[in-house]
Amino acid sequence: MVITLGELAIRFGCTLKGEPEVPIDSVATLENAGERSISFLANPKYRRQLAATRAAAVVLEPRFADECPVAALIAPNAYATYARIATLLYPEPSWRAGINAGASVAERTRIAPSASIAAAVTIENDVVIGERTRVGPGCVVMQGSSIGADTCLSANVTLCRGVRIGDRVLIHPGVVIGADGFGLAPERGTWVKVPQIGSVQIGDDVEIGANTTIDRGAIEDTVIEDGVKLDNQIQIGHNVRIGAHTAIAGCTGVSGSTTIGRNCMIAGMVGIAGHLSICDGAVVTGRTLVSRSIRKPGVYSGGLPLDEARRWRRNSARFRHLDELAKRVESLSGRAMPSDEESGDANGDD
Amino acid sequence: MVITLGELAIRFGCTLKGEPEVPIDSVATLENAGERSISFLANPKYRRQLAATRAAAVVLEPRFADECPVAALIAPNAYATYARIATLLYPEPSWRAGINAGASVAERTRIAPSASIAAAVTIENDVVIGERTRVGPGCVVMQGSSIGADTCLSANVTLCRGVRIGDRVLIHPGVVIGADGFGLAPERGTWVKVPQIGSVQIGDDVEIGANTTIDRGAIEDTVIEDGVKLDNQIQIGHNVRIGAHTAIAGCTGVSGSTTIGRNCMIAGMVGIAGHLSICDGAVVTGRTLVSRSIRKPGVYSGGLPLDEARRWRRNSARFRHLDELAKRVESLSGRAMPSDEESGDANGDD
Amino acid sequence: MVITLGELAIRFGCTLKGEPEVPIDSVATLENAGERSISFLANPKYRRQLAATRAAAVVLEPRFADECPVAALIAPNAYATYARIATLLYPEPSWRAGINAGASVAERTRIAPSASIAAAVTIENDVVIGERTRVGPGCVVMQGSSIGADTCLSANVTLCRGVRIGDRVLIHPGVVIGADGFGLAPERGTWVKVPQIGSVQIGDDVEIGANTTIDRGAIEDTVIEDGVKLDNQIQIGHNVRIGAHTAIAGCTGVSGSTTIGRNCMIAGMVGIAGHLSICDGAVVTGRTLVSRSIRKPGVYSGGLPLDEARRWRRNSARFRHLDELAKRVESLSGRAMPSDEESGDANGDD
Question: Are A8 and A56 in contact (CB under 8 A)?
Fold first, then answer.
């Protein structure tokens, strides 16, 4: 696809600095862009690459406009504008409507005529699939599940029984939604399985990364609200609720019955304990252990950064005696250190 | 299914406080139960919801019986009793016996007539599948594997060559059992692959959560004993042995050649190093790094809880100088701090 | 297969101490070897088992030769030599060339005649598959991907659009390569998806463990160079580059745009932040948080080892006041502690 700078400026509401007739056919990084490519500057870290770029044009914010050596599309939110331009230039492939002969579809289903069902797909009874929805190769949709319109299950995705998925949802390969939550009752040294009777509800405009797992609820449903974005290899326990437009990065795990608010940003490899509540707008940095509820918006951390191994070992050996160390200091100074209880509630823990 | 309170009391050995004729057709939470639902109280955290419940009856332990505003099924282990009632009210779907026409089954196999093989399944030669076992859509069972009776491979499960699975095992979607362990011999800046010749043995009554992976042994087998319960996205390295009735929560990883005892409880995101031994009955809390063997039953921890980011940064910057800090204190007080060696063996490390 | 010790010595360039006619038909551990098995000693931890072994012979390094009670194959790198012997004794199964009738293969593909395509496989248009390559059951190869020669996709592997895989690559079940990177532009409380236009390049002789995910690049490609070895459940973000012969253990995550050098060894459950650079030859121990670039080869750590829970709680409560503690000590001693800035650059962080 080819489009001129002028058309891009009009379509996406940018101010154009440069010639409107220049044709654009691709996007590229500042560093490697050629004469028909458009690039963008969003992260100031890449600012020094701007001066040397050979892009046809750069999408950027007003504050960087004067530094731009080539044409510029000036937009208040350069990254979002870039995203829209790239979406235009690189349209998703369209899927042939209909059911592939190599799919196994039960008799009692309601599949929209414009839906596309690939080979090696299994669809059980009482499943509903909406208009223009794609169920890619190797996917399994178990009994009673429903999928909205314009949704895509990429490949090898499993939806267990009775899962409900909204519209415009994008589910990457290997995702499992609705497997049993980890419910076990201890009894005389063994475990009795607790049936997981709830299911999973996924709202509209959700994206779910590869090999992420979302368990079904024990009694009521696990709920992922509209616009939530989940990266790869995330584990969501039973009866978790994630509020609208919250984004969670890869390898994070959320234990059962925890509620996460709206518009949170949770970084990668975060571990969130069960039965907690995290307020709207909380930000949690990478590798944090969230072992208490968060009641005030703000930024929370918990990861200790690496060190050279020898130094690390010395310091971590000392950590094992930190309490004794603090007592020694208290005794030397004749005053108690602040304890957790006295330290106020800076991080809103319960 | 509908059953009366009286029948439930008899069948599960509870003391009934209330009218035996009341019909029950569902389970529900204390908060949302209706007049034909049974609920339960196991976690005292939910005790205050008991007073307001509108359930037909509540399964609970004797100590809570007096507080219950509705009928009660009194049992010594309320959670296990609830689990059994729920299992009765919500029976698993039954699978049609036989091999779906869309499955690909090799000639030299022994599949019980009552087994159910779904579409898009691949079963290679020399596979044995027991009575009433379900192999769900998209599963792959490679050469020489055997699966016992009443076992379920939900969907998109992969069993590699020669894996042996017991009876009444439940394997959730996306699980991979018997992929090669991570065996590499370094040689002049490259790696020589070490063939993984062992396999995997899974006992009876095991449950394995979605997208969990269990590697085959390097020479001998990786072994998961009877009654072990594994949550989602767990990684079990080659030649690990996990003792009977041990439960492990999601996202935990166990490195190669480690032995975990019986009746352990390992929480989520725990990392267990290789070649260790963990005794029977050990309890490890969330996010712990188990870098040494555990020789005494008890509770072990290792996760630092979150803090407000600014405070966290200040404290973690200090951590990088903890050894100097301790030396300063030793010098001020004129006495050495206890070292790791002197501190006894409180946690049974080796 | 049976081979004599003498033949093994000649074929793999070992010094034989013992009778060359002894037949060998299997490998075994030192502990459980029988009279036709060969074993090896590489990890000195298992040295005491050498004295009692009943193996026909043991592969070992010159320093252990005198202790060996049975025949010995003496090699400078015993583990690599053992690996080669085991590869000889346990050949990989060979696959029948051709396309299984249960596979779904698009019209416009180029599949080598010696390639083996299993049942329940889906191959889209413009895919190229090299000689003797195996695409196992349930795999999906999306449009425009290419796979070299002698490569194996075990089962249920997904390659998304335009992914390029080299020769002699081994990809274990459940792997997803080329799913969208986690690219989101925030806009007024919601997220705009940033199209992920790059793809993934995997070099030759790479091994990728079960359920590992490697995301496609945002604009340019994610790159895994020759000889890289990835264990299970690793997450590789978009535009990461991993240098040749680097090995990464299970459950590690690498965030977007980070570059890892050649010949690095990264242990399990390590978390590596985005936009970092890790030099050639770096070694990172288990559970480390790599939040800064590593510029000097060496060993880096970041995991705090477990402790008995009560002690851990006391120490971690003190950690929350470590900065105050350090200030108290500074005040007592009348001298500032070294700060991060003053402490030099021992670990090469930026």
Answer: no
Q: What was the pLDDT predicted at B347?
A: 40
Q: Which of A156, A322, A343 is closest, CB to CB, to C138? A: A156
Q: How many residues does chain C have?
A: 350
Q: Which of C90, C307, C323 sits opposite B301 (nearest CB)?
A: C307
Residue ranges of domains in chain C, CATH in brackets: 3-89 (3.40.1390.10), 98-300 (2.160.10.10), 309-343 (no CATH)
Q: Cα separation of B66 and C258, whole Å?
A: 61
**Neighbouring C-beta atoms of residue B274, cutoff 10 Å:** 18
Residue C152 has what DSSP assignment? Answer: E
Q: List subunits contacting chain B, requiring 3 or more Cβ pairs under 8 Å.
A: A, C
Test mutation, C159, C260, C316, C321, chain A, max A CBs within 10 A: C321
Which residues on B lie below 8 Å from A122 (Cβ)?
102, 118-120, 137-138, 155
DSSP state, C13?
T
Q: Which residues does chain B have within 8 Å of residue A154's beta carbon, measured at their own beta carbons? A: none
Do C192 and A321 lie within an 8 Å CB cutoff?
no
- Contact (Cβ atoms closer than 8 angstroms) between residue C264 and residue C298: no
Q: CB burial class (10 A; 0-12, 13-18, 19+) of residue C136?
A: buried
* Phi and psi, residue A86, nearest 5°: -65, -35
* pLDDT given for residue C349 in this prediction: 38
- Mean pLDDT, chain B, whole residue set: 95
The reported pTM is 0.96
Q: Taking 60 as the threshold, does the pLDDT of residue B342 lie above it?
A: no
Q: Which residues of A touch C321 (CB under 8 A)?
A: 326, 337-339, 343
**B203-213 pLDDT tens trace:** 999 999 999 99
CB contact under 8 A, B173 and A158: yes
B334 pLDDT more than 60: yes
* A177 Cβ contact list (under 8 Å, min separation 6): A157, A158, A159, A160, A163, A165, A171, A200, A202, A208, A213, A214
Q: Do A251 and C253 touch (CB under 8 A)?
A: yes
Interchain CB distance below 8 Å, C311 and B346: yes
Decide if C329 and A326 are in contact by the 8 Å CB cutoff: no
How much of chain A is helix, strand and coil, in % rounded to 5? 15, 30, 55
Give the pLDDT confidence score for residue A45 in this predicted structure.
Answer: 84
pLDDT at res. C43: 86
Which of B192, B290, B301 is nearest residue C80 as measured by Cβ atoms?
B192
Residues 6+ apart with CB under 8 A from C158: A138, A154, A155, A156, A173, A174, A210, C139, C140, C142, C175, C176, C177, C178, C179
Smallest Cα–Cα separation from C159: which of C216, C95, C116? Answer: C216
Which residue of A lies nearest to C197 if distances are taken between CA atoms?
A90
Task: Locate C74 and state its tokens.
Answer: 């003496």
Considering only A231-240, B26-35, B332-341, C57-66, which range has the smallest mean pLDDT? B332-341
Query: In which residue ranges of chain A is pLDDT below 70?
Result: 340-350
Q: Across the interface, do A300 and B306 touch by the CB < 8 Å criterion?
A: yes
Task: List the catalytic residues of A.
Answer: 238
Q: How many CB pairs (< 8 A) connect B and C?
A: 246
Q: What is the mean pLDDT of each run of 10 residues along chain C (350 residues)?
A: 96 97 97 96 90 96 95 97 97 93 97 98 98 98 98 98 98 98 97 98 98 98 98 98 98 98 98 98 98 97 96 96 96 87 40
Known catalytic membership, residue C172: no
Location of structure tokens 């690459």? A49
CB C59 within 8 A of CB C38: yes
| Record: contact C233-B220, CB cut-off 8 A | no
Mean local confidence (pLDDT), B91-111 = 95
Size of interface A-B (CB pairs under 8 A): 244
